[in-house]
Amino acid sequence: MMTTDRRGLILGGAALLTVPATARAQTAAQGTAQGAVIDITRARTDPIPIAVPALAGGGRGADIARVIQANLRNSGLFRPVDNAAFIQSAEAAAATPRFQDWRVIGANALVTGRVVDQGGQLRVEFRLWDVLPEQQIQGTAFTAPAAQWRRIAHLISDVIYERLLGEKGYFDTRIVYVAESGPRDRRTRRLAIMDQDGENNRFLTDGSFQVLSPRFHPNAQQIVYMSYFQNQPRVYLFDLSSGRSEVLGSFPGMTLSPRFSPDGRTVVLSYAQGGDANIYAVDLGSRAQRQLTSGGGLDVSPCYSPDGSQIVFNSDRGGDQQLYIMSAGGGGARRISFGRGRYATPVWSPRGDLIAFTRISGGQFGIGVMRPDGSGERILSEGWGMEGPTFAPNGRVLAFYRETRARDSRGGGYSARLAQIDIAGFNERQIVTPTDATDPSWSPLLA
Amino acid sequence: MNVKILGALGALALLSACSSDEASNAAATGAGGSGGVVGAAGSVRPGSQEDLVANVGDRVFFETDSSQVQGEGRGTLQRQAGWLNRYPQVQVYVEGHADERGTREYNLALGQRRANSARDLLVAGGVSSQRIQTISYGKDRPAALGSDESAWAQNRRAVTTVR
User: Fold this and answer.
1) Percentage above 90 pLDDT, chain A
2) Does any domain span residue B5?
3) pLDDT by residue (tens digit) across A171-206?
4) How confident is the model at residue B163 (pLDDT cuts 50, 70, 90)?
5) What does CATH list as the number for A3-38+46-165?
6) Looking at the domain A177-442, which fold is it?
7) Neighbours of A31 (CB within 10 A)
8) Which residues of B touch A277 (CB under 8 A)?
9) What ipTM was estimated for this complex?
């Protein structure tokens, strides 16, 4: 059964153009995968050995294969076989795989394909093979403007991930973050956006005013963030297609730590009032503001559960910073963090099963996860400075930022960089950015 | 923030620039001190930021995770209130700051709470709240750039700046 769907591709960036491009995917899923499939729910497994030779047809074929290999390797769940070990040529494999040639070099899965340049449009066919039973698992063709060859590679990577691991991938996504430069007392902070692998980095603001805490809308076309524009710390909405920002709500003082609801119709944020900070919900249609917490502490960093029914947030109402959950309409707040230390920046997994957080304990910062009832706490990474976790859309990977300690009184040696880690606590790696980087927010899948 | 460098005196101009930028430990120390007599009388414009820094003290400090102004800070804010009452045309920002050993968003709220504490004491000293605007920079504008206790102590602060 062949299906065709149309997918709008949105690109932001300095010029913030909406590219009126589509990628057409023709997909034929054939049976279920067998030999190469693993159980992703296991905490940690041996990575799947997979061969991804250059796609046939020249042009971008080798580049696309290279991006697919990098995606799969970076997930920690695949081990791309070294190209130098390949026996069968890429061109020949694209015609008919000789499975014993791939089996003998240790590949359990094989990706073949072909790139056809149709006058500025690329048509990319790819097939995913299970090498042991010698079966095709998937065959898909994508069409997109040649300039968007990376997106095709990410879409193919997501198909491979999903077919072999049994859950959605996260490669066709972007990360918005705060790009930082200059000395820390006179820091320039700009909104920046990039592909999840660090490519196609673009700055969205010019640095003439400070920005913090950007977060993606669930349709990935808007960002909500905090800005010191005209020395007024406020929450703003940023539209990626127009490049325009507008202030959100009519709060007379500082608003901070915004986040969209899962349906994209509401922004929840913190509003500093007197000596307290309270959580408000702002309806994006009517712009009506509703106060959800009141009195008795600093309530910040709210985040909805994926079904929109609850909000987890950070409060010092009990004396020090802890995590609390309340109903999305406010009320019924109960504390969920009871470990040693202070807890902050909670984010709910898109899968609903975990809440990630920052913990400060014994002079160390850590990134961890716990169940929404507070049980099962695990610290995934710990060090001198780190905070601000954000989930990849499949809930399997977290991005956050890590800081290194200044080694002298002039701040020498300080740095802030993005990192990612599997929620099982392995495969931590840096996401390379052109400048120092903080406050990452992972987009949903773009297609 | 308004950075004004007045007068032809090099030493004075340097002090002003530092304190306005909050760029150095020297500024923090000088500003937090008792505000000694400025040698070249008349070179600092009365009612200016330089006057506040040199003769009153522009900042107060806080304990970790606290927004309570302690004894020495209360004295500084009392002097600031007297100074502001002397120059009723002056409008100020009170900026709240935090050290780097907290999370960014919480520290923004903590900085706001510190700015409010300082503002409340100025108001208690007879300054109209209309003249005071509070703002928080959390941990994102440190005065001292080191990563040690002494830097953190200088960074947990509320700073009064002439608008």
Assistant:
1) 87
2) no
3) 999 999 999 999 999 999 999 999 999 999 999 999
4) very high
5) 3.40.50.10070
6) Neuraminidase (2.120.10)
7) 11
8) 109, 112-113
9) 0.89
Q: Which one, of A107, A44, A32, lies nearest residue A75 by Cα? A: A44
The confidence band for A45, taking pLDDT boundaries of 50, 70 and 90, is low
In this complex, is the C-beta atom of A231 within 8 Å of any C-beta atom belonging to chain B?
yes
Quote the tokens at residue A124. Answer: 């990319």
Query: What is the domain partition of chain A in residue ranges?
Result: 3-38+46-165, 177-442
Mean pLDDT of chain A: 90
Contact B105 A254 (CB under 8 A): no
What is the mean predicted confidence (pLDDT) over A378-401?
97
- Nearest by CB to residue A275, choosing from B100, B116, B145, is B116
Query: Confidence band (pLDDT; 50, 70, 90) for A362?
Result: very high
Q: Do B65 and A320 touch (CB under 8 A)?
A: yes
The CATH code of the domain that includes B79 is: 3.30.1330.60
Whether residue A185 and residue B21 make contact (CB cut-off 8 A), yes or no, is yes
Q: Please state, as a whole number, how many other Cβ atoms lie within 10 Å of the Cβ of residue A87.
A: 12
Q: Has residue A95 got a pLDDT over 50?
A: yes
Look at residue B65 and tell me if it is in a domain.
yes
CB contact under 8 A, A257 and B65: no
Whether B34 maps to a domain, the answer reads: yes
| Domain region containing B86 | 10-162
Strands (E), A156-275: 174-181, 188-195, 202-203, 211-216, 222-227, 234-239, 245-247, 255-260, 266-273
Q: Round the CA-based radius of gyration of chain A to a whole number and report it.
A: 23
To 10 degrees, the CA torsion angle through A227, A232, A235, A240? -50
Report if residue B2 sits inside a domain: no
Q: What is the pLDDT at residue A27? A: 44
Query: Mean per-residue pLDDT for A158-171?
Result: 96
Look up the pTM and report it.
0.87
Q: How far is CA A1 from the centre of its chain?
A: 32
Q: Is B116 on the interface with A (CB under 8 A)?
A: yes
Residues of B in contact with A360 (CB under 8 A): 101-103
Is residue A239 over pLDDT 90? yes
To the nearest whole Å, the CA of B147 is away from the closest chain A CA by 5
Angle formed at CA A134 by CA A131 and CA A136, multiple of 5 degrees: 95
- The CB-side HSE value for A356 (13 A sphere, CA atoms) comes to 27
Structurally, chain B folds into a number of domains equal to 1
Q: Do A439 and B116 touch (CB under 8 A)?
A: no
| Residue A406 in contact with partner chain B when CB distance is under 8 A | yes
